[in-house]
Specification:
heterodimer, A: 154 residues, mainly alpha, 2 domains, 5 helices, 69% helix, B: 101 residues, 3 helices, 5% strand, rod-shaped
Chain lengths: 154, 101
């Protein structure tokens, strides 16, 4: 294998002649550890070798852990997408309900005032109205997030 | 068979200076394997950390969504009850005011 090393703007190249048998070993070792032979050549040319000895069992263990993590992530993604969709529509439904409720509360206050009746306590309802009209749909809320994703996707 | 590798001009200069050393490295398959193993281990550790971080983030977000979904359900029930109650009460109050709507 003839390896030619070159750089832009430089006329002189550097050439290495690697015997085929040796090149086959380089290819074999590279693939065994998940690298392309070209990557191994770059290490040989530029980085040099590391002295650290690695336990192959540790590599095997890590590969299994990664596989397991990927499976968990895949599983979670499958559950997460429909839940996110449902949550968005729950927030939207509650927002519509909050709008209706807001009108009914205003009417109730007006009628009670006209009839000289004491005002009702709507503090919890007002808190919810505020939440579904702003917080749940703010930049950090569900709608804000959905809009951002739509904008990114488009 | 031929392979062309592009490097930066500075790297090319360095390779030219160290040609003998590099030729020795080409023959040292054991050293190459030891290095590739060590690099593989580093890459796997990085990948594992990245996956763990992503999984933690997704689990947190998933938990938030589950909590929100439960809250939204409770809130909806409260608001539906109040809407029903206020519709009846407002109708009653309008009647007391003399018919109205």
């Amino acid at each position: 294998m003839k390896i030619t090393v070159w750089a832009r703007g430089k006329w002189r190249k550097v050439t290495f002649n690697v015997p085929d048998e040796l090149w086959e070993r380089i290819e074999e070792v590279s693939r065994k550890w998940g690298f392309r032979p070209e990557e191994a050549v770059r290490i040989i040319l530029l980085d040099g070798y590391l002295s650290e000895e690695v336990d192959e069992k540790e590599i095997g263990g890590l590969e299994r852990e990664i596989e397991n993590l990927e499976e968990r992530l895949y599983e979670l993604e499958g559950k997460w997408s429909p839940l996110k969709f449902r949550s968005y529509y729950s927030a939207l439904d509650n927002q519509n309900l909050a709008i209706t409720l807001s009108g009914l509360i205003a009417e109730n206050r007006r009628l009670r005032k006209m009839l000289n009746l004491p005002e009702r306590d709507f503090s919890r309802a007002e808190e919810l109205i505020h939440y579904y009209m702003s917080s749940a749909f703010g930049d950090k809320g569900l709608k804000g997030q959905a809009d951002r994703e739509e904008a990114e996707g488009g | 068979m031929a392979l062309r590798i592009e490097v930066s001009p500075e790297e090319l200069e360095e390779i030219r200076k160290r040609k003998g050393e590099i030729e020795t490295r080409f023959r040292d398959i054991e050293g190459l394997e030891r290095t590739l193993k060590a690099l593989r281990l580093r890459l796997l550790r990085e990948r594992k950390e990245k996956l763990e971080r992503k999984l933690r983030e997704m689990e947190d977000h998933y938990r938030e969504l589950v909590e929100f979904e439960e809250r939204a359900k409770r809130d909806r029930e409260f608001m539906l009850n109040l809407r029903r109650e206020l519709s009846l009460e407002n109708r009653e109050l309008r009647k007391r005011l003399g018919g109205g709507r």
